[in-house]
């Protein structure tokens, strides 16, 4: 530990020995955190070999009206859980939500406004695939209330896009960005690195082109071979860990030099353009999830619950309209033993961390519950010893998995 860290550690208020009574029983909340809504659209044109999301390749037309009826029933059954609460953001993800017709999107957003207390300036994001992006449709989405578009570009290299199983090519990606920029002002581009056969030069070429469009937000993240995917079964040759880490470091430097601030592990934004919806996740806010496979986290006065819906779209649609709760796959209460890890798993992803006050406010337990693990992380140089924030050091960010696991 450095002398600076040691001196600041000693300057922190002395922590009393743990009082077991403070850590027992149910959590207690004097206020509730911000609330977001996630809407899942499960269909896509083709399943990508790296994708482990709950997405399903289309074998015909999207059953839009059946889907919207089930979505309405799903939401209405959840409303008693969130009565009176404002919704700060909506994220429509997938799958490929941009496959929905303009009419279906309009019906969806009208239903949300009718049922929810949406903030007037709520962030409403839709994910879009460049291979399923039409100018007229995006303009209609915007007219219905969508004010942010997240485009899954991944790469501008046609060879890499083919390897990734994407349905678009580089020219379609460029056209989709131009279309989105004409429809809305808030745009995110997803860019992957450490792709099969990619070298540093190819990564830089991809990233520099993504930066050239001047969008407000970029997600720059490492390709991972997730379990239960085609790539897990037939793994391609990807850059080794050292090259992958060097790509991330180089990419971060280029982005920050270009005016994007890295505010989360994989997220870069211009001033004032952070994704409000995702930031609410990382700050351990609440979110309601509707649609097949959607997950949610909701806080009540004496507990935090997590919910998950049936994953299969057909099963979810059949069950949701019965209005008997059979569309819910799981409801569980987050235990006192889990809460510290869950909070830190999210909060430490943020470059500036979170205010210390968020821990008792959003877990329902005193910070004393996490103090021993925090002290150990500070001693290892992985967390900032300063008072007032829970924040990883640059070293802690470099070894974020190790830091997060120290709270298990």
From TrEMBL:
Domain named Radical SAM core: residues: 29-262
One Pfam family cited in the UniProt record for this chain: HemN_C
Compartment(s) where it occurs, according to its Swiss-Prot or TrEMBL record: Cytoplasm
Ranges for region Disordered: 1-23
UniProt entry tagged with the keyword Membrane: no
SUPFAM superfamilies, A to Z: Radical SAM enzymes (SSF102114)
Keyword Iron-sulfur assigned: yes
Family matches, as InterPro entries: Coproporphyrinogen-III_oxidase, Elp3/MiaA/NifB-like_rSAM, HemN_C, HemW-like, rSAM, rSAM_sf
A GO term from the CC aspect: cytoplasm
One MF term in the entry's GO annotations: 4 iron, 4 sulfur cluster binding
Keywords: 4Fe-4S, Chaperone, Cytoplasm, Heme, Iron, Iron-sulfur, Metal-binding, S-adenosyl-L-methionine
GO BP: porphyrin-containing compound biosynthetic process
Role noted for this protein: Probably acts as a heme chaperone, transferring heme to an unknown acceptor. Binds one molecule of heme per monomer, possibly covalently. Binds 1 [4Fe-4S] cluster. The cluster is coordinated with 3 cysteines and an exchangeable S-adenosyl-L-methionine.
Record family assignment: Belongs to the anaerobic coproporphyrinogen-III oxidase family. HemW subfamily.
NCBIfam families linked: hemN_rel (TIGR00539)
Record-given protein name: Heme chaperone HemW
UniProt organism field: Paracandidimonas soli
